[in-house]
Every structure is written in structure tokens, then in C-alpha cells.
Design a protein that fits this description.
The chain is mainly alpha-helical. Helix content is about 85%, strand content about 0%. The chain has four helices and no strands. Helix 1 (about 1-30) packs across helix 3 and helix 3 (about 50-80) packs antiparallel against helix 4 (about 85-115). The chain is elongated, with a radius of gyration of 18 Å.
Amino acid sequence: MNVYTGKLAQILQRITGVLLLIYLLLHVHTIRELREGPAAFNAALATFRNPFFKLLEIALLGTVILHALNGVRITLIDLGIGHTRHVKLFWYGAVGFGLLLFLAGAIPMFLQGVLKV
């Protein structure tokens, strides 16, 4: 498992980076609707209010958390800190702590956005 952890972390970093780039492009496209006036912008925002997009928002939260924490891990390794502990940094730091952060944010988002509690 130690041999593949670094490669897995690298692949996940790239995948989450591409997903965040796609989100950024969609976000810029939506904000661009402001040029067309409030009605066009409100129509664009109405598209994102359905439960499917709320689930995508929750997935975005997970993507941002994993990308950020794995980026911190990579930075620490590049600085020579924790080079011998990169496996633990990934599994306990990026994945474990990231999962806790994700649940802390995703549960309220799910309850408010999808279930409308």
C-alpha cells in the first residue's frame, strides 16, 4: 500500500484540480449572465436550485477539501517536512481529517438544500 499511496494522491490531486477548473468555468459563465440583466441572472440561478445541483454542491465541498488538504501534504513534503510519513499524511491528514470536515459541512448542506428541513 505504501508504494501506491503517493501515486494515488497524485492522481486524486490532478482529478480534483480538473474538476475545480470545470467548476470555475461554469461559475464564470453564470456570473457573466449579470451582463444580461437581473432577469437573466435570476433565471441562471434558478437552474442551480434543484436537488441535483445541491448534491453537486456537496460534491464540490468534498473536492475542495481533498484538493486543499492534499495540496498542504504535497507542500509539506516539498519543504522536507514529513517526507518519511507521506502515507500517514495522506490517509490520516487528507482523507481522514478531510472526511471529518466534509461531514461537518455536507450534513447541514444536505439537510437544508436537498431535504429542506
